[in-house]
Design goal:
It is a single chain. By secondary structure, the protein is mainly alpha-helical. Among the domains are: 20-72, no CATH class; 150-254, Tetratricopeptide repeat domain (Serine Threonine Protein Phosphatase 5, Tetratricopeptide repeat, Alpha Horseshoe), CATH 1.25.40. 67% of the residues lie in helices and 0% in strands. Helix 9 (167-178) crosses helix 10 (183-195).
Length: 257
């Protein structure tokens, strides 16, 4: 049987520009709340300036309001400052400051900060490399339902990196991430079903997961998903292919993109 190969973890920081609070749409009303010391309003006003939503886009103003919210312990503002220092947006790039803000948000249970902190310990960026600490932060984020961390733990168990190699555990974490629409986890779940790793061989479900991954991937990853799907398809009956497509369609109908 041809070895398809899992998709390995591609490290990358996660952005934050989709986390919007429900507060007054009117910028003046929002600013009045922020000036009164409302940390949630301060964070949201920072977001508005960062994105130009209802105000002129202004990174300096965004940063000012993010800082005020973060200094009051607002976890999303702390995470955002970590991301801005990590990427050098509006400030000089500074790994130490990124780490400091990520840690404050992570200690409050922010899953994205926990994941990014895990990446830093995993790669030794801004801290001495410590894969035990990385694994701890990944687990915390994964247990909160954060798909990227769930996928990452799946890769760890599949490859035995920092943990005992365990195909069943890998499958469990891949499935949790895949059910949230993580394309790389869906791809690796397809590999697991095709190769019988942690689960009995099942061409129908392998085809289904590769098809779902294909619909969410771009570039070479999309090509690989299509190639694997079609490779399996050549070994299946028309009835099995129809069943796999039906399962993928049902999955899409019950999961938001």
């Amino acid at each position: 049987m041809k070895q398809l190969g899992i998709v390995l973890l591609l490290f990358g920081l996660l952005g934050c520009d989709e986390r919007v609070r429900v507060l007054p749409e009117d910028a003046d009303a929002l600013r009045a709340l922020a000036q009164q010391g409302d940390a949630e309003a301060q964070y949201t006003l920072g977001f508005r300036y960062a994105t130009g939503r209802g105000v002129d886009q202004d990174d300096a103003e965004a940063l000012r309001w993010y800082r005020q919210a973060a200094d009051q312990g607002e976890a999303e503002a702390q995470y955002t400052l970590g991301f801005w220092y990590a990427t050098g947006r509006g400030v000089d790039q500074d790994d130490a400051e990124a780490l400091r803000w990520y840690r404050q948000a992570a200690d409050q249970g922010d899953a994205e900060a926990q994941f990014n902190l895990g990446v830093r310990y995993d790669t030794g960026r801004g801290v001495p490399q410590d894969r035990v600490a990385a694994l701890r932060w990944y687990r915390l984020a994964a247990r909160k339902g954060f798909a990227r961390s769930q996928y990452t733990l799946g890769v760890r168990y599949a490859t035995g990196r920092g943990v005992p190699q365990d195909d069943v555990a890998a499958l469990r974490w891949y499935r949790l991430a895949a059910e949230q629409g993580d394309a790389q986890a869906q791809f690796n779940l397809g590999v697991s079903y095709y190769e019988g790793k942690g689960v009995p061989l099942d061409a129908v479900r392998a085809h289904m997961w590769f098809n779902l991954a294909y619909s969410r991937m771009n570039g070479n990853s999309r090509v690989n998903a299509a190639n694997n799907r079609d490779l399996i398809g050549r070994l299946m009956t028309p009835e099995q292919i129809a069943e796999a497509r039906h399962l993928a369609s049902e999955w899409n109908a019950t999961h938001s993109r």
